[in-house]
Amino acid sequence: MGRKKLLIKLAKFFDLDIGIKDQRKEELQDLLMRLKQKEVSLKEEMHNEKNSDTKEKLSQKIDVVHTQRKKGVKMLKSLRSEMDKKS
């Protein structure tokens, strides 16, 4: 095991905040993956839909999911940069 990994493990042991942030980062990555899958499925559903009203509703849902993903990506980037500063 490299020196850097050992130092990170030691820091995690002494600083519980890092462990909590690491867990939060993993949960956020999982959530972003699920949101992306939902966005793709909504786009497919909209592509197959014939009714224009339903297409409009699906388009609004896609916009909401996309905005949520953008916010999540921004949060993940800031969380990663915070963790890199502490390392």
Quick overview:
The protein is mainly α and 87 residues long. Helices cover 92% and strands 0% of the residues. α1 (3-14) packs across α2 (16-48) and α2 (16-48) packs antiparallel against α3.
Shape: rod-shaped
Strand content: under 5%
How many separate structural domains?
1
**What string gives the helices and strands in order?**
HHH
Write the topology of this structure.
Elements: H1 3-14, H2 16-48, H3 52-86
Helix pairs in contact: 1-2, 2-3
Explain this structure to me?
With 87 residues, this protein is an all-alpha fold. It has one domain. Helix content is 92%, strand content 0%. Helix 1 (3-14) packs across helix 2. The longest helix has 35 residues, at 52-86.
Structure keywords:
mainly alpha, 87 residues, 92% helix
